[in-house]
Design goal:
binds iron/sulfur cluster; about 675 residues; Four Helix Bundle (Hemerythrin (Met), subunit A); hydrolase; about 50% helix; globular; alpha/beta; seven-stranded parallel beta sheet; Rossmann fold; single chain
Length: about 675
C-alpha cells in the first residue's frame, strides 16, 4: 500500500476510535475493517462492495472515512439510501453525533445536509404564477380556485399550503404536519423537468429547492436517496453538488430503484394531462389531432391483455407512432420563452408533459426493432385496480439491465462504495456486481462478517418432510399443521414471511382458530403499527409479505421464530424478471439461476436476517419448502443464508423452541 493511503487508513482508524468512544460504544473488528477499506477505496479510487452484517455498525464505518475524505478533498461525499428510515437515522442521529465527536480531531466541524428531489419542495413560481389548486390542475386558471373549490379537500389543502409557503423555512414536504395527499402536493410543486430554470424564475432567489441545493454544495456529507442519485447520473444537468465519491447504503436495492427511475409509462391519465396542458396553447387543429391520438392509445391499452409484450401489434404501433408525432408537433408549436413568468410556467409544464409522451411512445416503438435476445428495453401492460373498483391501464417500458447506465454514468465519475447486510448471493458478490455494472470496472468485494455467532445463536430448519408447495400459493394441510406446531412450541413470538398476501391471510385465519396466542396479519393496520404491537407482546405473531421480509427490526424475545412458507421465486408472470431470465438464457447462461434463484436467495437472506438483531438474540429460521433440501439449487440458496446450525428434524426444532420459550 502506498504511504499516503496507509496514512489515510491509519487516520480513519483513529477517528473511528474517537467517534466510537464519544458515543459510548466498543470497538468492533468488522467496523474497523470496513472503515479502513472505505478509506482505502476513497484514496485509491477503486470501487468497493462491502457486506457488513447487522450489528457491525456500518453507518459509522463509512461516515467516518467519508467525513475525513470530504474535509481533506474539499468536496462533498454523497451518501445514498433506499429508505427514509435510514435517511432519518443518518441525518437525525448518526451525523449530529459524529459531528460533535470529530470536531476536535478535524480542522473544522464537519457539515452535512439532506437533499431530496425538486418535487419534495414547494415551488413558489407554481404557487404564485402557475395553475395551482384548480380541481383539474391543468385547465382552470388560478383566479377561479378559491371560490370554486374552497369547499373541497383539495382546495383546503392548497389554501393551507399557500399559507405555509410564507411560514416555512425549508418548503420541505416532510416538515409539513399534518401531511397532504400526493394530489394536493402536486398543485404546489414541480418536477425537475417542469422547473422553468432558476435564471428565468422570478422566485429563483427564494426558491426552496435551490436553497437546499446551495446548502448541500457547501457541506461534507450530502445524504440523498437512490432515485435522486439515479436522476443525477442520468441527466446532463447536475442535480447533486459536484462530487467524486459516493456511498450507496442498502445497495441491494440500487438496481431496482434505478430501474424504476428509468421506467417510462403511458396511461390515460398522463396522456389526458399532456393533452389538456397543450390544448390551450396550440391551434385547434393540433389540439384535435393530439386528442384523437390520445384517445386511440388510451382505448387500445384499456382493451389490451395485461402482461409482457414481445411483439407490438400493427394497430398499437400505428397509434403510438401517431401519438409521438402529434405530441412532437404540439411541443414544437409552443413558445417556451415568453417574457411573462406565468406563461412560462404553463408552457414549460405543457412541453415537459408532451416531451415525456413523445419520448416514451418512441422508446416503446423502437424497443421492438432488435431481435428479442438483443433488446435493451422490456414493454408490458399493467391493469391496476383503483379503490372505486375502476381499472387503470398503464403501458410501461423499462430497461432489461441498468448495468451499462450505472457503469458509464456513476462508476466512471465517482469512486463508489456499495454496502448492505446482504450483498453476496450463493456466497459471492458476482450477481450483484453484474447487476450494478461493477463487474467491468476495477473493484474489490469485502465481507466483514457479523458480530453474531450464527451457529450458536440460530437454527436453520428446513421442513424436508413436507410435500413441495402447490401452485395455488396457499399452504397445504401438512404445512398448516407444521406452522401450528412450531408457533405453539415457540409460544407465539413468530414472524411469518409469506410469498403472497393471499397465503399470509389464509394462514392467519387458520391459526386464529387453532392457537391460543394472537396472530396479526399485514393489511389490518399500518405496517408500523402492527410491528409495534408484535414487538410489545411476545405472545403475538405477525404474518405478512414483502415489506416484512426487509423492514422488520425487532430485537429480543418477541421474535424467536421466522417462518418462511416457500422459496420466494419471482412470480412467473413478472414481466421484467422473466425477460431478464430469457435474455441470460439466450446468451448461453443459466437464466433460472442468474435471475430467479438469485432473486430468491437475496430475499431469503433478508428474511432470515430478521431473526438475530442483537448479540443475545436466539431463535429459529424455519423454511417450510422442502425444495430447499431436495432441489439442485437448494445448496445455492442455503449458501446465501447466514451460517446457522442446520437441521431437518422437526422434533429437535420444537424442543429448542420450547427451551427458548422457557428461558425467555
Ligand atoms: S426555480 Fe424552479 S422550482 Fe424554484 S421556484 Fe422557480 S420554477 Fe419553482
Amino acid at each position: 500500500m502506498a504511504a499516503d493511503t496507509e496514512n489515510a487508513t491509519e487516520r480513519v482508524t483513529d477517528l473511528l476510535a474517537a467517534a466510537v468512544a464519544a458515543v459510548g460504544g466498543a470497538e468492533r473488528t468488522g467496523q474497523v475493517e470496513m472503515a479502513r477499506a472505505v478509506a482505502r477505496a476513497f484514496d485509491t479510487g477503486q470501487h468497493l462492495a462491502v457486506q457488513a452484517g447487522t450489528g457491525t455498525g456500518k453507518s459509522l464505518a463509512y461516515l467516518v472515512p467519508a467525513i475525513a475524505h470530504a474535509v481533506s478533498a474539499g468536496q462533498p461525499v454523497v451518501v445514498s439510501t433506499a429508505t427514509i428510515a435510514l435517511q432519518r437515522q443518518l441525518v437525525d442521529r448518526d451525523l449530529p453525533r459524529l459531528a460533535d465527536a470529530l470536531t476536535g480531531a478535524l480542522p473544522r466541524r464537519p457539515q452535512f445536509a439532506l437533499l431530496k428531489g425538486r418535487g419534495n419542495y414547494l415551488c413558489l413560481n407554481k404557487i404564485h404564477n402557475g395553475t395551482t389548486g384548480t380541481t383539474d390542475p391543468d385547465d382552470r386558471p388560478q383566479e377561479e380556485l378559491f371560490d370554486a373549490v374552497a369547499a373541497t379537500a383539495l382546495g383546503r389543502d392548497v389554501q393551507r399550503l399557500t399559507k405555509w409557503a410564507s411560514d416555512t423555512e425549508t418548503g420541505d414536504r416532510d416538515e409539513l404536519r399534518p401531511g397532504v395527499p400526493d394530489r394536493s402536493w402536486r398543485q404546489v410543486s414541480v418536477s425537475a423537468r417542469e422547473c422553468i430554470g432558476v435564471t428565468r424564475c422570478p422566485y429563483g432567489t427564494d426558491c426552496f429547492a435551490e436553497k437546499a441545493r446551495g446548502k448541500a454544495a457547501d457541506v461534507d456529507v450530502v445524504v440523498t436517496n437512490h432515485a435522486l442519485l439515479a436522476i443525477d447520473a442520468m441527466s446532463d444537468a447536475a442535480v447533486l453538488p459536484e462530487h467524486s465519491a459516493v456511498v450507496v447504503d442498502e445497495a441491494h436495492e440500487l438496481a431496482d430503484r434505478v430501474t424504476s427511475v428509468a421506467t417510462g409509462e403511458l396511461s390515460a391519465t398522463s396522456l389526458g394531462v399532456a393533452h389538456r396542458r397543450a390544448a390551450r396553447l396550440v391551434d385547434a387543429e393540433l389540439a384535435e389531432r393530439l386528442e384523437a391520438a390520445v384517445a386511440n392509445v388510451s382505448s387500445a391499452i384499456h382493451d389490451g391483455t395485461p402482461g409482457r409484450i414481445d411483439r407490438l401489434d400493427d394497430e398499437l404501433a400505428t397509434y403510438l407512432t401517431a401519438l409521438r408525432d402529434a405530441a412532437d408537433r404540439a411541443r414544437l408549436a409552443i413558445d417556451t420563452a415568453p417574457t411573462d413568468p406565468k406563461a412560462a410556467a404553463a408552457r414549460t409544464e405543457a412541453v415537459t408533459a408532451l416531451t415525456e409522451v413523445s419520448d416514451t411512445a418512441s422508446r416503446i416503438v423502437d424497443s421492438f426493432v432488435p431481435a428479442i435476445p438483443d433488446r435493451y428495453d422490456v414493454v408490458w401492460l399493467d391493469h391496476e385496480g383503483g379503490n372505486s373498483g375502476s381499472v387503470s391501464a398503464i403501458l410501461r417500458v423499462a430497461p432489461l439491465s441498468v448495468a451499462g447506465l450505472l457503469r458509464t454514468r456513476l462508476f466512471e465519475h465517482a469512486t463508489t462504495v456499495l454496502t448492505s447486510a446482504t450483498l453476496t448471493v450463493g456466497g459471492t458478490f458476482d450477481t450483484m456486481a453484474r447487476a450494478w455494472g461493477l463487474a467491468e470496472t476495477t473493484w474489490q468485494g469485502l465481507d466483514v462478517g457479523s458480530p453474531f455467532e450464527h451457529a450458536k445463536s440460530g437454527i436453520l430448519y428446513v421442513a424436508a418432510h413436507l410435500p413441495p408447495p402447490g401452485r395455488d400459493g396457499t399452504g397445504s394441510a401438512e404445512q398448516l399443521n407444521e406452522i401450528e406446531a412450531l408457533i405453539t412450541a415457540a409460544g407465539g413470538r413468530t414472524l411469518g414471511l409469506f410469498s403472497s398476501m393471499r397465503a399470509a391471510k389464509a394462514a392467519a385465519e387458520v391459526m386464529r382458530e387453532r392457537l391460543d396466542t394472537p396472530v396479526l396479519c399485514q393489511g389490518e393496520d399500518t405496517t408500523s403499527a402492527l410491528v409495534e404491537r408484535f414487538a410489545d407482546d411476545p405472545q403475538t405473531s405477525l404474518f405478512g409479505t414483502l415489506s416484512l421480509w426487509q423492514g422488520v427490526d425487532v430485537p429480543g424475545p418477541s421474535l424467536s421464530l421466522v417462518l418462511i412458507d416457500r422459496i420466494p421465486f419471482p412470480r412467473p408472470d413478472d414481466p421484467l424478471l422473466t425477460a431478464r431470465q430469457r435474455a441470460v438464457t439466450a446468451h448461453g447462461g443459466n437464466g433460472f439461476m442468474a435471475v430467479a434463484a438469485s432473486h430468491a436467495a437475496l430475499l431469503l437472506a433478508q428474511g432470515a436476517g430478521r431473526l438475530l438483531r442483537r448479540t443475545d438474540d436466539r431463535g429459529v429460521v424455519a423454511v417450510l419448502d422442502s425444495r430447499m433440501a431436495t432441489a439442485r439449487y437448494g445448496g445455492y440458496l442455503r449458501a446465501s443464508l447466514p451460517p446457522f446450525w442446520a437441521t431437518t428434524d422437526p422434533v429437535r426444532v420444537r424442543a429448542s423452541l420450547e427451551r427458548l420459550r422457557a428461558g425467555a
